[in-house]
Amino acid sequence: MKRRLLLLLLPVCFLGLALFFFQGLSLDPSQRDSALMAREFPAFEATTLRDKNQRVDQSLLQGDVTLVNVWGEWCPACKQEMPQLLELADQDIRMVGVNYRDTREKGMEFLSEFGDPFEVNIFDPEGELGFDLGVYGAPETFLVDADGVIRYHHKGYVSPQDVRERILPEVEKWR
Amino acid sequence: MLIKMIPEIGHFALIIALLMAMVQAVMPLAGAATRRPLWMAYGQPMAAGQFLFIAIAYACLTASYMLDDFSVANVANNSNSLLPWYYKFSAVWGNHEGSVLLWSLMLAGWGFAASVFTGNLPRDMVARVMGVMGMVCVGFLLFILITSNPFERLLPDMPQDGADLNPLLQDFGLVVHPPMLYMGYVGFSVVFAFAIAALMGGRLDAAWTRWARPWTNLAWAFLTVGIALGSWWAYYELGWGGWWFWDPVENASLLPWLTGTALVHSLAVTEKRGSFKSWTVLLAISTFSLSLMGTFLVRSGVLTSVHAFANDPARGFFILMLLAITVTLSLLVFALRAPRVSHKVGFNWLSRDALLLVNNIFLVIMTVTVLLGTVYPLILDSLGLGKISVGPPYFNALFVPLTVMMCIFMGLGSVTRWKGMAVRDLVRKLWLAGVAALVLGILMPLLYRGEWNLFVSLGIVSALWIVLPMVRDVFDKTRHASSFIAGLRKLSLSYWGMVLGHIGVAVTIVGVAVVSNYNIERNVRMSPGTTVEVAGYQFTMTELAERRGPNFLADTTILQVQRGDTGSSFTMRPEKRLYLATGMPMTQVALRPGLFRDLYVAMGEDLGDGSWAMRVQYKPFVRWLWLGALFMAFGGVLAVLDKRYRRATVTREAPKAIGKGDTAQEATV
C-alpha cells in the first residue's frame, strides 16, 4: 500500500510540471532570450554620419521612445526595409540609425538614394557599438524606451507584416 | 475539377481516419474487458484503414505543394513557385501543420506495422495494444483537425505566389532530419502501447519484453540517426560551426533518447533475467511521454530556440492537454497496477544485471539534468523570479563527468556475466585493457599535438575503456571455435549489435573530445589576393563574384586552398545568399570534409572596399560525432535482425492455424 502511494507521487509531480507549462503558455519567451532585454542601451561616444565634428552619446536616446536601426550600405536587406522604416518615421516615431561598418560617403550615398527616416545617424565604422549591442549582422532594430532601456530586439529584415504585427504594438506598449 | 478538390479530399480523408481511430480506441479495449473476440478483432483492420486514409491526406497535401496551389494557406505560407520541386516535396514537413501530419502518418504506420507483426501474443494483448495506439492517434488527429488543419483555404483572395520556404530549411539535411526524428519519437509509441497493455492485462512476462525489444531498438535507431542529422545540419547550415547548442529543441530530442537508451538496456535485463519489470515499464512510459513533451516544447513555443516555430497558444494548450492526459493516465495505471506484477530475482552486485542497473541510473540522472536545465528558465519565469537562460556551461559541467562515469561502468558491463561473477575473473579479463586505455589515452594528445590536454585524454581513455575490453571479449568468445572466423560467425547478431553500438559511443566520445578542444577558428578580413594560414593550410581568396540562384541572389567567394606539407590544392566556395521572397540572408558554408579533419569557411559580412569578414575553421575529428551515431543506430538494427526474434515470428504461425475459430484461446494461453 505504501509503495502504491509512493508511485502515485509520479503523476502528481508530472501534473506540477504541467502546471508550469500551462503558465508558460501565456508568457513571452522572446523576452527571456536576449541578454540585453530590459537593460540600458550601452554607453557609447561617437560622431554622426553627416558631421564628423558633432559628437553624440547615450543621452541621445533619453526622453522619447526611439527605434534604433543598425544598417550599412553594404547590406542588401537594409535597402529592402527602407520603405518600412520611412513609413514608421511618417507615423511620428523617432528613428535613430547606426551606420555600421561603413564609410561616410557610402552611407550618405545610401541615404540619398533610398531615403532618410533617421533623425540622426550614429557613425560606427569599426562596429564597436554594434559589438556592445550584440548585433549578429545588419539589419537589426532595437526599441529603446524614454528612459534609454532596450525593450525589444528585432533581428534581420523588417517586413511590412513585422511593422504591423510586432513593431507598432511594441512602440504603443512603451509610449 | 478533381484536381481543384485535392485539399478537400485530404481533409475528408483525415476525418475518416479520425473516425477509424476512435473505433480502434474503443472497440478492442471494450472487447478485451468483456472477452468478445469480434470486438477485439476491430483493432487490426482499423489500424490498416487509418494508415491508408492518413496516407491519402498526406499525398493530397504533397500534391497541393507540387501543383503550387496557393489557395491552400499552408502552401502559400511555406512554398513558392520558384522553389525547386524537391524542396516543394520536403516543404510539406517544413512547417507546423505538415509536420504534425507527418507525425500522425508515422504513428499510423507504426500502428499498422504493430498490427501486422503481432508475434505469438494472446489476442486480448493485441487488442489492448491496438486500443492504446488508437487513443494516441485520436489525440493527434483531433489536434490536426481542430488547431492545425493543413488544408485551410485562402479563398476568395488567394495570393499570386507563395511566401517561400524558410531558407534555413532549403537543404538536404532538413529534408531527412525531421522524418528520421519523428520515426524515432513515434516509434516509442509502440513500446508505450505495449507497456500499458501489459499493465492493464497484468501480464508483464518475458513474452512482452521479447516482443517489445525489436520495436524499441528500431525506434531508438531512428531517433539516434535523427538527432545526428539534426546536429550535422546545424553544423553546416547555421554557419557557426557548432554541432550541439543545448538548445531546447535539441534537448527535447535528447531526453527521449536518454530514457530510450535506458529502456533498451533494461529490456535486456527483463527479458534475460525477469527482473526490473516495473522499472522497464516505467521507462517505456517515460520515453514516450518525453517524446510527447518534446513535441509540446517545440510546437508551443514556450521556450526560445534557434529553431523558430510559430507560437500559437491554442496549439500549445491542446498539446499540453494531450500530454497531461496521456502521462497522468499512464502513470496512474502504472501506480495502480505495477506492484502486482513485480518479482524478486536475486543477483550479485558484480554482475551484468547490477551494472545495467547502474547504467540506467546514470541515464536517468542525465535525463533529469537535461530536463531541469531545459525547463528551469520557464519555471523561474512562471514563479515571477526573473528571466534567465541556462546555457552550455551548465550542461557541459554536469554532462561531461556523468558521461565519463558512465563509461567506466559501460566498459565493465559489456564483459560481465549475468547473475554474478568472481572478482578474479573480471580483473583477469580487464586489467590489460585498463592499462592500455590509460597509457594510450594519456599519450595520444601528446603525440597528436605535442601538448597534453586533460579533456582529450579523458575522452580517449573512456573510449578505449569501452572498446578494448569488448575486443578481448570477442577473442575469448571465439577461442574454442575451430577457427577465428568460425568463432565470429557463431556470435549472435544481437551481440554484434551491442558491440557496434558501444563502439559507436566510443567513436562519438572521441569526436566530441577532440573537436571541442582542438578546434581552430580564425576570423579574418579578406579581399581578393589575401592569404590566411590556418592549421597548415593556406587559404587564398582568388575571386569575389555575384551570382543568381533559382530563388536567391548570392555573393560568392572562391578560395584556393593549399596544404602546407603535401602542396596539394583545391578550391572552396562559400556564399552569402539573399533569398528573394523572404528577404532573409543566409550563410552557405564551404566545407572540405575528411575523416580526421574538416575545413570550414563561412562568409561573415561585407566590410565595404571589396573585402569580407571571413570565418575560417579547422575542425579535427568532427565527422566522428556523427559516424559514432551511425554505428550506434546500425548496432540497434543488427539487434533487431537477430534470429531470436525471427524464430518468435515463425512459431506464431502454428498456434494461429490451430486456434482458428477457437474463441476461448486467450483464456488458455
UniProtKB/TrEMBL annotation, chain A:
Lipid bilayer topology: Single-pass membrane protein
Keyword Disulfide bond set for record: yes
A single GO BP: cytochrome complex assembly
Key words of the record: Cytochrome c-type biogenesis, Disulfide bond, Redox-active center
Main location class: membrane
Similarity-based family: Belongs to the thioredoxin family. DsbE subfamily.
PANTHER family: THIOL:DISULFIDE INTERCHANGE PROTEIN DSBE (PTHR42852)
Identification of the protein by name: DsbE family thiol:disulfide interchange protein
TrEMBL record, chain B:
Top-level taxon of origin: Bacteria
Transmembrane parts of this sequence: 12-34, 46-67, 100-118, 125-146, 182-202, 214-234, 254-270, 279-297, 317-336, 357-379, 399-418, 430-448, 454-475, 495-518, 621-641
Ranges where the Cytochrome c assembly protein domain occurs: 93-300
Membrane-topology descriptor: Multi-pass membrane protein
Record has rRNA processing as a keyword: no
Domain Cytochrome c-type biogenesis protein CcmF C-terminal intervals: 320-643
InterPro entries hit by this protein: CcmF_C (IPR032523), Cyt_c_assembly (IPR002541), Cyt_c_biogenesis (IPR003567), Cyt_c_biogenesis_CcmF (IPR003568)
GO biological process, alphabetically ordered: cytochrome complex assembly
Alphabetized GO MF terms: heme binding; heme transmembrane transporter activity; lyase activity
GO cellular component terms, A-Z: plasma membrane
Predominant location category: membrane
Localization: Cell inner membrane
Alphabetized UniProt keyword annotations: Cell inner membrane, Cell membrane, Cytochrome c-type biogenesis, Lyase, Membrane, Transmembrane, Transmembrane helix
Keyword Ligase attached: no
NCBIfam families for this protein: nrfE (TIGR00353), PRK10369.1 (NF007691)
Its job: Required for the biogenesis of c-type cytochromes. Possible subunit of a heme lyase.
Family: Belongs to the CcmF/CycK/Ccl1/NrfE/CcsA family.
The name this protein goes by in its record: Heme lyase CcmF/NrfE family subunit
